[in-house]
Amino acid sequence: MSNDTEWTQLLAWLATFPGHVDPEKHVKLVHNAAGRGLVARGDAKPSTLLISIPHAALLNLRTLRPLYPKPFHSLSATQLLSLHLARQFRRHLAPSSSSSQKREPHDKWWPFLATLPRQFATVPLWWAVHRRSAESLAADFPLDPDARSGAGAKGKGKAGPVDPSLAELAHDSVEARQARRTRATRYAELRELMPHGVRRRAVEIERRFAEDWAAVRRVWNAHGDGVGGDFGVLDFALGFLNVNTRCIWFNVDPGNKDNNLTLCPVIDMINHAPRRMTKPESLLSTLSFSSPTHSSSDPALRDGDELCFSYGPHEDAMLLAEYGFVVGRSNEHNAVEIDRFVEALFDAQGREGELKRQVLEDEGYWGDMTLQSGPDDSASASWRVLVALRLLHLRLPSHLAASTSLSLSLSGHDALAPWQHVVSGAAERISVGNEKVVQGTLRGLCGAVEKEALAGLARCAEVRARWDKEAAAAAAGKKEGGEEVDESGASLSMLETVWREEARIAKAVGGS
């Protein structure tokens, strides 16, 4: 939010809804390290209703679908919400927009949408989009996803429509273009510095974004004339990021749980805190947030305390990839993905390793293998890691290992009985010897993970030193880098936090 005027206008808009409850009676807006947040206005008794937002003020499939023609109803919640935000951002924020333009029904939520973030400089998807040039964006995210060339949806042989969000970049000043190039370079570097767990999630989010863009553009190209307005890929990216980071669960479509999400004014400003039990609650006609109950393990809400709830039991790699923040050492859910390290061990056993992997897949134990943080700086290997390593070091009779049809019969073979007894809980270990080798292998895995993490930290340190020199030179020459360039340093610190946690966890497990 750029200023408190938008907050004031949001409150005035909410006051127009029947059953309105003024949020400022119990909470107030603050600007903090997270950007903004809500704090208690005075001590709150247990179960005090702090915020109550009418369902009619929410943005979800139920409130949006009536504004769009039937073909748009095939879009998912994320797709339709992202489209609506993209159109509204283009209509109200583009340089060509006019404050005197006639209000339309789609503008109903603009007092709320005006409070949403305009950039997400610490989110990897933002890096992925804004590291690209305008030409690259036009090629990677065409207005007509089904066009084979630059021809758009308007007709074969004619120049296609121009992405309005990209066309604006051509009018930037020389200084603005240089700042954009600097940011693009830094975003590309940040992507190269991502730990494996962050990268895997970031790539998945990029895939979802590309698929949603294509799905929305197909419907828009065919039926958008009946809606009006326009949007480009940068508008859609901003809409998608707001939807992906700010929606909360809300029961809209019992038949499709992925559609059960909503954007909610005011409550969307509540930040994450681990282990909190208090959550937004859907009542008959409102979405509300109250102070902790008498029986809650959450601390009582005192004057000036920030309102928080848990976004879920997520590790920092996920929080960074999805939301653009990290918790750090106090996050008991932090973990290191080690699937690729374990997979290499099975590959090294050749045919026998391949067959053992098949057993793990058949039994549901292949993949999702982690070193897991715990309370009080503790850490341990997940059960799935131990199950896999115990089977890895269970030597099979030579005639079984050479069988070409082993995957069909091994699961029930006597040779696997000691391992199956451990998996079922009937025994604690296969043998003293097997467990000794397993623990040795685990220490080796932890050493490899720690080495990789320390190397990642070293690369981050090298980049930070260079960026600091560039910043000093820019300050001396009074070059404009922009706010987003400053956020690159914050993003780098978050990547360092994830690497540091991976090193800590691996060292703790390896030394236990």
From TrEMBL:
It comes from the Eukaryota. One of its GO terms (biological process) is methylation. GO terms for molecular function: protein-lysine N-methyltransferase activity. The keyword Iron-sulfur does not apply. The keyword tRNA processing does not apply. Transmembrane segments: none annotated. Signal peptide: none annotated. Keywords: Methyltransferase, S-adenosyl-L-methionine, Transferase. This is SET domain-containing protein. It comes from Rhodotorula graminis (strain WP1).
